[in-house]
């Protein structure tokens, strides 16, 4: 039986403004890109909100503005944001910002947020998200990340597990991803598999073959499967739909 492909479009990530001519940064740019990606087949969206200077931020006002704009452009589609510790570069501020997201109006509040299990603050960030009613996307980039998630007993409370491979050779990415997937097992939260740079399209193909959610967008790559430059995020999503 055929299954519907589930693609999360990752619109900008930590990319600098000059990375790609169509990299969305402002709320209006994110909104326009979100609508185009959903029209191309994306069922979920992941964004990194920016401040007035274009720098990543976890500040509730900036997060709320970006999420509101995206949600209005793509109603009914779940919007995820990052909680990465590099964004604020201060553990206390990171946690303070995440906790204050719970006070945002529903229209401005993220549906989910990704948490990197390699980060020291991951358990506290996960607790803050859960207390605020925001779904947790647990980011696992290594076997040790997966073991930590399991040891902490946090897997059942997650909404999604992100098996995310770095910019490494595809064979190495495949080996680590297979090990993580074997550890976390089937069932439970939704599993997403994605890569970055060299591993991006190989992991997308692997996710499609396994029937897992895949993630595609300028956060992870700027080229189409044939190596040619992608016009924008929507073109990347369309290419993923055609895998």
Describe the structure in brief:
The chain is an alpha/beta fold.
How is the topology of this model organized?
Elements: E1 7-10, H1 27-40, E2 44-47, H2 60-73, E3 78-82, H3 85-88, H4 91-100, E4 112-116, H5 122-131, E5 135-140, H6 143-151, E6 160-164, H7 170-184, E7 190-194, H8 200-210, E8 213-216, H9 233-241
Parallel strand pairs: 1-2, 1-8, 2-3, 3-4, 4-5, 5-6, 6-7, 7-8
Helix pairs in contact: 1-2, 1-9, 4-5, 6-7
Can you walk me through this structure?
With 243 residues, this protein is an alpha/beta fold. 40% of the residues lie in helices and 16% in strands. It contains nine helices and eight strands. The chain has helices at residues 27-40, 60-73, 85-88, 91-100, 122-131, 143-151, 170-184, 200-210, 233-241, and strands spanning 7-10, 44-47, 78-82, 112-116, 135-140, 160-164, 190-194, 213-216. α2 (60-73) links the parallel β2 and β3. α1 runs parallel beside α2 (60-73) and α1 runs parallel beside α9. The longest helix is centred in the last third of the chain and has 15 residues, at 170-184. It is globular, with a radius of gyration of 17 Å. It starts with 6 loop residues before the first strand and ends with a helix. The relative contact order is 0.15. The mean pLDDT is 97.
List keywords for this structure.
16% strand; 8-stranded parallel barrel; 9 helices; alpha/beta; 243 residues; globular; single chain
């Amino acid at each position: 039986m055929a299954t519907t492909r589930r693609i999360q479009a990752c619109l900008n990530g930590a990319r600098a403004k000059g990375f790609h001519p169509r990299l969305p940064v402002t709320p209006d740019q994110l909104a326009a890109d979100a609508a185009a990606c959903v029209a191309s087949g994306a069922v979920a969206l992941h964004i990194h909100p920016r401040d007035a200077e274009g720098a990543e931020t976890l500040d509730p006002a900036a997060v709320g503005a970006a999420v509101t704009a995206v949600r209005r452009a793509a109603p009914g589609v779940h919007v995820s944001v990052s909680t990465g510790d590099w964004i604020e570069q201060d553990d206390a501020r990171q946690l303070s910002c995440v906790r204050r997201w719970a006070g945002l109006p529903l229209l401005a509040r993220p549906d989910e947020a990704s948490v990197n299990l390699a980060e020291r603050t991951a358990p506290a960030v996960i607790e803050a998200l859960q207390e605020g009613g925001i779904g947790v996307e647990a980011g696992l980039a290594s076997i040790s990340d997966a073991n930590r998630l399991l040891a902490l007993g946090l897997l059942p409370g997650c909404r999604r597990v992100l098996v995310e491979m770095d910019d490494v050779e595809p064979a190495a990415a495949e080996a680590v991803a297979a090990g993580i997937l074997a550890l976390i097992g089937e069932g439970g939260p939704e599993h997403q598999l994605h890569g970055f740079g060299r591993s991006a399209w190989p992991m997308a193909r692997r996710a499609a073959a396994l029937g897992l959610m895949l993630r595609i967008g300028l956060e992870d790559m700027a080229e189409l499967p044939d190596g040619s430059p992608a016009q924008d995020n929507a073109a990347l999503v369309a290419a993923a739909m055609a895998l």
